[in-house]
Amino acid sequence: MAQSISMETGTRSFSHRTLAGDLAAAVGGPATIEGWLTTRRDLGSVTFLVLRDRSGSAQVVVEDERLSETLAGLQVESVLAITGDVVAEPRARGGAELRAREIEVLSPVVEPLPFEINRPVLKPALDIWLDRAPLALR
Asked: Which residues, other chains included, contact 134 with Cβ-Cβ below 8 Å and sequence gap of 6+?
């Protein structure tokens, strides 16, 4: 069980973690997913996140401005725990998305990575590649 902090109450509670690949099975109910931030798109009043865990990826929608401020300054590969309501969305990965109510930053990445690691083909300069081989080879 994962530990989470409620943004609304500031109290600690224990909740059951749902894997990203199982999110569609939880449509209509609450869920908590934990994983690495893969992409982030800020579209004014709405922020879209893609979180990756061992089972795949899930789309998260953040509409609360206060929750969006929690994400300020975070880079790709930050580890997050997000609790919210699962809704069916045919355009989302897996046919469902999570509407965020609580966000906890488990492990922040505050400095940008030396190259984009979420691309099928990495194209860093040779010196960057050699200096950061463990990151490049993962």
From this structure: none
- CA trace torsion 116, 84, 69, 35 (10° rounding): -30
Q: What is the pLDDT of residues 22-65, one digit of tens each?
A: 999 999 999 999 999 988 998 888 999 999 999 999 999 999 98
Per-residue CA distances from 72 to 23, 27, 42 (Å): 25, 28, 11
Tokens 């994962």 identify what position? 2
What pLDDT is stored for residue 44 in this prediction?
A: 83
Do residues 51 and 37 lie in contact, with contact meaning Cβ atoms separated by under 8 Å? yes
| Cα–Cα distance, 19 to 50 (Å, whole number) | 13
Q: In a 10 Å sphere around its CB, with 0-12 CB exposed, 13-18 middle and 19+ buried, how is residue 129 labelled?
A: middle
In degrees, rounded to 5, the angle at the alpha carbon of residue 97 between the alpha carbons of residues 93 and 102 is 135
Query: Structure pTM?
Result: 0.74
